[in-house]
Amino acid sequence: MTIETEYAIETQDLVKIYKTGKVQAVNGLNLRIKQGEIYALIGANGSGKTTSLNMISGALFPTSGSIKVLGYPIPAKRRLITNYIGLAPQEYSIYEDLTLEENVRFFSRIYGMNKSEFETKFTELLQILRLEEKRKTMVKNLSGGMKRRTSIACSLIHSPKIVFFDEATVGVDPVLRSFFWDYFRSLQDKGVTLVITSHVMDEAERADRIGLMRAGKLIAEGTPEELKKKHNAETVEEIFIKLSEGEVINEE
Amino acid sequence: MKNKKKSTEKEFQPKNLAFSMRRVMAIALRTINQFRRDRRTVALLSIVPIVIMLIFGLAFSGEVINLPVLIDNQDSGLGTLIVDNLVNDTRVTLTNGTYEDGISQVENGNYYAVILIPSNFTTSILEMLAGNLTSAQIFIYLDGTKPTIRASLLGALRDAMENAIGGNGVRVVQTLAFGGAEFSGLDTGIPAVIAFVLIFLLVIVGVITLIREKIQGTQDRLYSTPLRSSERLLGYVIGLLLIATIMIALVLIFGVFVFGAKVQGNVFLLIFAALLFGMAHVFLAVFLANFAQNELQAIQFAPLTAIPSMALGGLFVPTISLPAWLYPVSYVVPLTYGINLFEGIMLKGWGFKELWLDFTVVAVMCLIFFILAVITVRDRMRD
Question: Contact, B161 vs B82, CB < 8 A?
């Protein structure tokens, strides 16, 4: 697949209204995420972050609006991009009754990887995620942070070009979180695009760009510095609180 | 320091540590509350006992009844009296025929028995009474593969003789069909166990496997991978059928080598039948999984599918013994055909020639469940 588009992800007027409950989860989302960027989508619980990721990854169909991932229209061409994206969902979403290795191996097979490709990449991931000793451990016996890392390993095993981490650093201790970010940077160096959602605002400060979501749409976007300057705030959290309280008029 | 300790002790007087009915009731009320929220469970638990009661009550209303039997009465005297009595017996449904034709009809499974009352029967009885003969004879050629059916057939015949002529001195000459196959409860139980394994294992375990994938979130995760829904469906089928094959093999090996059970027919045909029947149930499980949100609801498919089908599919009593209005239902219960196949092959030594119709029906059901599964198997998240 040749990729000739500047943007890894583009959405236009993206809307999602769930049939059950008639909740308007996403309400006119316009995102442009460049290739090789680390983009943090932040917002309170229920602001539409996860729904947006699910639509962008092709798992959930939008009600209206358009999505392009690596230049391909989604969901129409969603199968074409599946090998190039990796998604670590908010829940661990791994098999509790399999070992760590069996989980990752399963996903490697789903991605059509052969044994040696798996071994090489898996060894690398175990080292980075500090899971070497837990290779043969049943997932149900792992701690929350380790399950999180196992889930991340499952989403990275096939070396995707775009990675979605939905609340990836929840339950991860500060030391490890720092390692994570080092690893995120190293992925970025290889041209990987990372989209991270979080409701932890300081997390977002490490990203290249931030999108603040509220009620299913972006209410502010920019680099952490730009945003702080613009909103005359010390931290991203402060901006978020200001915007949420309506002190600053909605920019959209 | 000492003072401080003292004051702390005072502050933390142990309280509320005695056994508390309030706490007990908190647990009880919470349990009821959670249960109340799961409406489907509430509905099922109020309906299921009644349904099961009805089905079991109707399916097991006493003896095995309505067994089709051919009668070849060549005797115009006492023989007619016996036949009259048999006609009034609910255990059998009589049709006139010849003994020779009857034998092949029993072998084909159209009738459970053929009874021959020879032309010299009355004469023999009279001779017997005169002391010239020790006994008169009646011949019965019957299906002996199931002890309950055999007992009903012989019971009906004995009662008829008893009522007609007092029964003394009449010798019933039994010939068992299917190469003289006579089975104990254990032998006849094996086809039932196979059916049970396939239905319970594949439907219940199958549904739970799928539900778990839903609950764990792995199903949603797989939607953004290259996995196709057809690949997923086929994967489940192969995985679950492999497990089922191992279990059937275990049942057979254990039954044959440890308990000495007999398998009359071709073991490979039996395994083929089991796989076909099993495949239908895997597809059914995939379809049913759409209607359960959690494991509790999945388990409820057991009383809803497995138990009625066992009662109505001829596992405990032959379908012919069901009440007339319930009998047609047995035609749409997959297990009816499964039991025909498993019992036919194992107990009667039947092959494809005798069972082609049952194979066809199971294959058609497999196709129907496959279509239902394909239509409902998801390749993306619920809108």
Answer: yes
Residue A6: both structure tokens together: 């500047």
Task: List the single residue in B with minimal CA-CA distance to A111.
Answer: B226
Residue B139 backbone phi and psi in degrees, to 5: -105, 135
Q: Which tokens sit at B242?
A: 């492999």
Give the sheet arrangement for strand A64-69, strand by strand: A24-34, A7-17, A64-69, A72-74
Query: Tell me, what's the pLDDT at A5?
Result: 67
**8 A C-beta contact, residue B202 and residue B278:** yes
Contact B216 A58 (CB under 8 A): no
Within 8 A of B382 by CB-CB distance, chain A residues are: 20
**Nearest residue in A to B214, CA atom:** A93
Give the list of residues 6+ apart from residue A215 with CB closer than 8 angstroms, or none. Answer: A27, A47, A48
Q: What is the pLDDT of residue A246?
A: 56
C-alpha B59/C-alpha A75 separation (Å) is 52
Look at residue B5 and tell me whether its pLDDT is greater than 60: no
Question: What are residue B252's phi and psi, to 5 degrees?
Answer: -65, -45
CA B222/CA B280 separation, integer angstroms: 25
Q: How far apart are CA B218 and CA B71, in angstroms?
A: 63
Residue type, A53: L
- Taking only the tens place, the pLDDT of each residue in B120-159 is 999 988 888 888 887 889 999 999 888 888 889 999 999 9
Task: State pTM to two decimals.
Answer: 0.81
CB A218 within 8 A of CB A14: no
- CA-angle at A107, arms to A103 and A112, nearest 5°: 145
Residue B287 exposure: Cα atoms within 13 Å on the Cβ side: 17
Q: Edge-to-edge strand order for the sheet containing A217-222?
A: A85-88, A162-166, A193-198, A38-43, A209-214, A217-222
Question: According to the model, what pLDDT value does residue B301 have?
Answer: 76
- Continuous segment of H or E residues that includes residue A34: strand A24-34
Q: B257-291 b/e with 16+ CB inside 10 Å = b?
A: eeeebbbbbbeebbbebbbbbbbbbbbbbbbbbbe
Which pLDDT tens digits describe chain A residue by residue (252 residues)? Answer: 455 568 999 999 999 999 877 788 999 999 999 999 999 999 888 899 999 999 999 999 999 999 999 999 999 999 999 999 999 998 899 999 999 999 999 999 999 999 999 999 999 999 988 899 999 999 999 998 899 999 999 999 999 999 999 987 776 788 888 888 888 999 999 999 999 998 877 788 889 999 999 889 999 999 999 999 998 888 888 888 888 765 444 433
pLDDT at B55 over 90: no
- Contact (CB<8Å) A83/B223: no
Tokens 């052969």 locate to: A114
Per the structure block, which two tokens stand in for A202? 């300081």
CB contacts, 8 Å: A57 with chain B: 223-224
Please measure the distance between the N-terminal and C-terminal CA atoms of chain B and give it in whole angstroms.
64
CA distance B41 to chain A (A): 21
| pLDDT tens readout for residues B280-289 | 988 998 898 8
Interchain CB contact of B249 with A (< 8 Å): no
Q: Determine the pLDDT at residue A4.
A: 57
Both tokens of B121, joined, read 């029967």
Q: If we measure between CA atoms, which residue out of A183, A188, A192, A152 comes closest to residue A170?
A: A152
